[in-house]
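Researcher: Re-running this chain for the archive, since the previous output was lost when a drive failed. Same request as before.
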Amino acid sequence: MVQNNKKQTPQWSSKLAFTLAAIGSSVGLGNLWRFSAEAGENGGGAFILIYLFCVLLIGIPTILGEFIIGRAGKATSAINSFDDLTKRTASKRAWRFGAWVGTLSGFLIVSFYCVVAAWVLVYIFRFLSGAFDGQNAIEIATQFDQLIISPTDLLLPFFIFGGLVIWLVARGINRGLEMASKILMPTFFVLLVALSVFSLYSAWASGGTSQALEFMFSPDFSKITPKIAVKALGQAFFSLGLGMAIMITYGSYLPHSISLPRSAVIIGLADTAVALIAGLAIFPIVFQYGLNFEAGAGLFFQTLPIALIATPGGNIVGAAFFCMAFFAALTTAVSLLEPAVSHFTEKFLLSREKAAIYVGLLMLALGLVSLNSLRFMDFLDSGVTAPILLPLSSLLVVMFVGWRLDNSILDRELGYSKKMWIKILVIFLKYIAPFSIIVILLASVMERYFPNLLF
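Model: Regenerated structure tokens:
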């Protein structure tokens, strides 16, 4: 039985602190390279337009559902919050499987996230040390290939990043998560905007800027296909960090003075704005230098460095770009580890410091497997978490909130009976979000395991 009282648990010190932390949890490397790669592969402006609709109609209502469970449940752990609400609504305890899946997803993702962050950290120092100076495109691209086949070279940055994540989570909500978000997120936004302005300005004369703007904001509707629509839906879903029990856990630290619907809207729009601004930082460079924007992770670690080093002050610009990526990775990784640590703290009555160390060591142990095997890393990412666990967790969340929670609980958390726009948001949560997530789940599984059958 959950013994924690919500009034006794730590809370965010302010609305701003919570908003920065929640935005930091959703803004990650996926907003930087994955969004650009997905848009490049799937029709540019047409993809982005569908993506925006998906964020508004599906992503934001799903964030709201996770917030409701977190704040309404009398626990800080997502699993115990679900457990509490199933008892109060006389629902089957099987519903809490959604929180178990979400917590597991976040833990699996953060284990290999440490590997990607280690790559980013290496690139910061390579730009600062001039490791790319005087090298041609093939030599620069080859450096990444050599890095991933030499895992021993990544051990130090891997442990540095993992240690930072464990330390911040161990410090708690106010001294850890809030501190990181208050420092890193403003710095991240300043760097992102500055790099976008620099990219747009430097590519202006070559025509790269006009090509990038046309590519992003002049949709060619003839390119829209069911497969591209599903891709945009999936990108919106994963970009917001849904299905990882993060927003449930963060919601548990929220006082009732903060509006859940307004917070969900702010976070969803902020995450989307970051993705679009990141596109403005990346696509002008891509078009200016004739790079392949369909290269996925290779775009980030192989083709972009070629362009960045060629710009005036290339080493500083490149280091700043990867510092921005590092800040985004750190805030996301902290939020991914938090749900598991929160559960260990409540389940085993451990201090936060001990729980963070125990769970963190497990994270590092699993991350070392990914460090030594990209195939295992790809299996966790593209074979388990992305196609199955994340949409399954989110589906159970929106179904539980939309169809099992009492109106009295919803009214207390939302006040939805008084405001039409909140009523509309709840309708999206009950009907549109579940249907769309089922589409994501089925399409993701088919694309991964039965690619010839997808559309």
